[in-house]
Automatic annotation (TrEMBL):
<dbReference type="Pfam" id="PF04972">
    <property type="entry name" value="BON"/>
</dbReference>
<protein>
    <submittedName>
        <fullName>Osmotically-inducible protein OsmY, contains BON domain</fullName>
    </submittedName>
</protein>
<dbReference type="InterPro" id="IPR007055">
    <property type="entry name" value="BON_dom"/>
</dbReference>
<feature type="domain" description="BON">
    <location>
        <begin position="141"/>
        <end position="189"/>
    </location>
</feature>
<feature type="signal peptide">
    <location>
        <begin position="1"/>
        <end position="29"/>
    </location>
</feature>
<keyword id="KW-0732">Signal</keyword>
């Protein structure tokens, strides 16, 4: 029972930490981020790992913003299990190197992976955001956004998240067979025992059976 209450408390604390700034300005509204609480509960990462990844992602985003503020909307940053990821388009190889160097200087990251192709003019690519919506609609029933994220760059799908090896194989096969996908880049991480909460206590009702 104590373990269950402890797990629930961690979910609440993690979710509230993501919105601490918002709460400070609207404490009188009594708002609770139930959407983020749900995603945190569905995420296979341990709650402490989720909180650490969120903190590191904010630091990574700030580092990229400081390095290249004009093109920040073209670059997405992610952190899973302490590993940083950069995904987007760049104007030159020099810009790519500067972004990666800035990411490497973020304290606490255990590594950096990136997909930063050069921008191409005149190519007939489907709008990335529209393509992403289609792909996410296909994945969502089995893989909520808390487990698997996809970014589309020039019709190349970059898959990120935390899944078991079996889940990865199934998800990647679905992506490769999706109409219009030119290539799939796998940045999905596999959690170790210490990083996963799959062995968390079962619901209270099971203890009473």
């Amino acid at each position: 029972m104590n373990k269950i209450l402890s797990s629930i408390s961690l979910v609440l604390l993690f979710s509230l930490s993501l919105n601490c700034t918002f709460h400070e300005s609207t404490a009188h509204a009594g708002f609770l981020p139930f959407g983020r609480m749900y995603k945190a509960a569905k995420d296979d990462r341990a709650y402490v790992v989720q909180a650490s990844d969120t903190r590191l992602q904010l630091q990574l985003h700030k580092a990229i913003l400081a390095e290249n503020p004009s093109d920040i909307l073209a670059i997405s940053t992610f952190v899973y299990l302490g590993h940083g990821f950069l995904v987007g388009e760049v104007s030159s190889e020099e810009q790519s190197r500067s972004l990666v160097d800035a990411a490497k200087n973020v304290s606490g990251l255990n590594g950096i992976s990136y997909y930063l192709p050069l921008k191409k003019n005149g190519e007939n690519y489907e709008t990335s955001s529209a393509f992403e919506i289609k792909i996410k609609g296909m994945l969502e029933p089995d893989y909520p956004s808390s487990k698997l994220t996809v970014k589309v760059v020039q019709n190349v799908v970059v898959a990120l998240g935390v899944l078991t090896e079996q889940e990865q194989e199934k998800a990647l096969n679905s992506l490769k067979n999706f109409n219009g996908v030119a290539k799939v880049i796998n940045f999905i991480q596999s959690p170790s025992g210490a990083e996963s909460k799959r062995d968390r206590p079962r619901p209270l009702r099971n203890f009473l059976n």
